[in-house]
UniProtKB/TrEMBL annotation:
Presence of the UniProt keyword ATP-binding in the record: yes
Keyword terms: ATP-binding, Nucleotide-binding, Transport
Matches recorded under InterPro entries: AAA+_ATPase (IPR003593), ABC_transporter-like_ATP-bd (IPR003439), ABC_transporter-like_CS (IPR017871), P-loop_NTPase (IPR027417)
Domain of life: Bacteria
Gene3D superfamilies according to UniProt: P-loop containing nucleotide triphosphate hydrolases
Residue ranges of domain ABC transporter in the record: 5-241
Segments for region (Disordered): 270-318
GO molecular function: ATP binding; ATP hydrolysis activity
UniProt-recorded name of the protein: ABC transporter ATP-binding protein
Presence of the UniProt keyword Transit peptide in the record: no
Bias-annotated ranges (Polar residues): 307-318
Pfam family, one: ABC_tran
């Protein structure tokens, strides 16, 4: 079972440069959340802050009653054992086999014998579809396989929180679809709290229970997937629908002339909200909401065509 992470008034700077300020949101226990944002908005910095690799200037990160932004080294070490991390490039040791890479955390952080370690490693490698590849070196396999090997290593200590940094980086759309399905299937099996940092809009629209968007040194919005996918807030609407019209420009913010030129322009309609990915076995995850549930509960009319594969338009208030 995953744990809840409560972030309150978090601020981080490097010298005079503020990365983001007064960030507050809660990662619900056992749910999949995605954090989006233009390049340079501090998404990876946020992951490092959540695991205590970076100290915030202000604010708190509460996990099971402990504020990791202010706790002792010993407390931080204990809390970190709740986490598994999938780094952007897999972060494999190039001279070690996949088996030894996956076994590394068990050998470093537990007193388990090699027989028990082998059982755990093979279980996790089977979970990510890598049985038979355990003797290969990271340089002998594809980028997608390295991602899966990194995921197996992140899982060997049975984490309650899984942090995933740019899982689609370097992957083609087909492999990205496969790894997205793997995340959904894993969440159904281990019930951990997932936070995925990504630029991939398809991932954000179909995988998570919750979406957040970092923009211009603050958190623009965080909430249930359907809330953001039906939002008319300019930054959220523009980013989640990959549109050119809006406040985001090539250098993050558009200048006054660019914004003035867009005055009176018709915004493209919001696209339909797609169905959320389901586990491969067809059994809904514990945290998975019924399609259209958030819209219905909050009196929001979703874009035309939303959820049409599963429920009628009248069921969601169209």
């Amino acid at each position: 079972m995953g744990v809840e992470i409560k972030i309150e008034h978090l601020t981080k700077s490097f010298g005079r440069q503020t990365i983001w300020g007064d960030v507050s949101f809660t990662l619900p226990a056992g749910e999949i959340s995605v954090m989006l944002g233009p390049s340079g908005t501090g998404k990876s910095v946020l992951l490092k802050t959540l695991i205590g690799l970076l100290k915030p200037d202000h604010g708190s990160v509460m996990i099971e009653g402990t504020d990791i932004a202010a706790c002792s080294r010993a407390e931080l070490y204990e809390i970190r054992q709740l986490f598994g991390v999938l780094f952007q490039d897999g972060a494999m040791f190039g001279s070690m086999s996949l088996y030894d890479n996956v076994a590394f955390p068990l050998r470093e952080h537990t007193n388990k014998g090699e027989t028990e370690i082998r059982g755990i490693v093979m279980e996790k490698m089977e979970l990510v579809g890598l049985l038979g590849a355990e003797t290969k070196l990271p340089g002998e396999i594809s980028g997608g396989m390295r991602k899966r090997a990194g995921l197996a290593r992140a899982l060997v200590l049975d984490p309650e929180v899984l942090l995933i940094d740019e899982p689609d980086s370097g992957l083609d759309p087909v492999r990205t679809s496969f790894i997205n399905q793997l995340f959904v299937d894993l969440n159904a099996q281990i019930d951990a709290t997932f936070l995925i940092v990504t630029h991939d809009i398809h991932t954000a629209r179909t995988v998570p229970d919750n979406i957040g968007l970092l923009y211009h040194r603050h958190l623009a919005m965080f909430g249930p997937r359907e809330m953001l996918l039906s939002s008319e807030e300019p930054v959220v609407r523009q980013f989640l629908n990959a549109q050119r019209v809006g406040p985001i420009g090539m250098s993050e913010e558009k200048d006054a002339d660019e914004l003035a030129a867009e005055v009176g322009m018709d915004l493209p309609p919001l696209p339909p909200i797609p169905l959320q990915l389901e586990p491969s076995n067809g059994i809904p995850r514990r945290s998975q909401r019924r399609p259209g549930e958030w819209c219905r509960q909050n009196g929001i009319v979703p874009p035309p065509g939303s959820f049409t594969d599963s429920i009628s338009p009248s069921a969601v208030g169209v």
